[in-house]
Specification:
The complex is a heterodimer of chains A (163) and B (85). Helix content of chain A is 0%, strand content 45%. With 163 residues, chain A is an all-beta fold. In chain A, a hairpin with a 4-residue loop joins strand 8 and strand 9. Chain B is α+β, with helices and mostly antiparallel strands and 85 residues long. Helix content of chain B is 31%, strand content 44%. Chain B is built from 2 helices and 3 strands; from the N terminus they run βββαα. The N and C termini of chain B lie far apart (58 Å). The chains are: A mainly beta (163), B alpha+beta (85).
């Protein structure tokens, strides 16, 4: 097998017949620069599934789908659950996020409930838990999105920063 | 033509101040030994997580990373988060 090290080629509009892979993990591509810098290195992409858990205002639900995509240090998660059980007047927290969040940063996203209530999601710092809130129509302040306010399903999407 | 399915550890990472252990489990589907599908499922373990059902390799890493000091710091941190508005 031929090896090419520190070799410069000029192939305008290069087309490859297959995917690119590297001999070792955590290697990537420097994007948008001519001199490699760490902040321009795209060396992490991953997609998969995760298992949502619940605490607070619900005792359980049926997971229809829960997926994630990670690009660099940014994670986007999506989740659709239904058949909610054990609804109470406490705030609903969703756990089991696929990556722990960065310290001193909070992820945010949107949640749609089966009752029609629209809310916001906050991923806690250094955590795999997301809290559900909604904007109180009277005060404009954040209130807890409780189990009794959710109806039969939860749909959410959140983006957050990992370590 | 034989279809087989196997699950294996894809990655174990210890991250952050609280030594969270991020585990990626890969499910591989093969036809006559040739990989035809691969999916990844992730979960994260913290110093107070139940790891008794985790693979031994994961348990070993958790037990090394989670010193009593780490566990105490995690307990304190969780309490602070609970008290947060």
């Amino acid at each position: 097998m031929a090896t090419y090290e520190n070799t410069r080629y000029n192939f305008p509009g290069l087309t490859l017949p297959d995917n690119i892979s590297f001999d070792t993990a955590s290697k990537g591509i420097y994007l948008g620069v001519t001199t490699p810098t760490a902040s321009n290195l795209l060396d992490d992409y991953e997609e998969g599934t995760w298992t949502p858990t619940v605490s607070g205002g619900l005792t359980g639900f049926t997971v229809q789908q829960a997926k994630y995509t990670k690009i660099g240090q940014i994670v986007n998660i999506s989740m659709y659950v239904n058949a909610l059980t054990g609804a109470s007047g406490s705030r609903v927290d969703i756990g089991g996020l696929p990556f722990t969040s960065a310290t001193n940063l909070f992820g945010t996203g949107v949640v749609l409930s089966g009752s029609g209530k629209v809310g916001v999601v906050r991923v806690q710092t250094a955590s795999t838990t997301a809290r559900l809130y909604y904007a109180n129509a009277s005060t404009g302040n954040r209130d807890d999105l409780t189990g009794t306010l959710l109806g039969t399903q939860i749909i959410l999407s959140v983006t957050y920063q990992t370590t | 033509m034989a279809i087989t399915k196997e699950t294996q550890i894809g990655k174990i990472e210890v991250v952050g101040t609280h030594k969270a252990v991020q585990v990626a489990m890969d499910t591989l589907v093969k036809e006559d030994g040739n990989l035809i599908s691969q999916t990844r499922h992730r979960h994260v373990l913290y110093p107070d997580s139940d790891i008794s059902n985790e693979p031994q390799e994961v348990q070993n890493i958790c037990n090394v990373a989670w010193t009593q000091e780490v566990k105490d710091a995690w307990t304190t941190f969780k309490q602070e988060q609970e008290n947060e508005i």
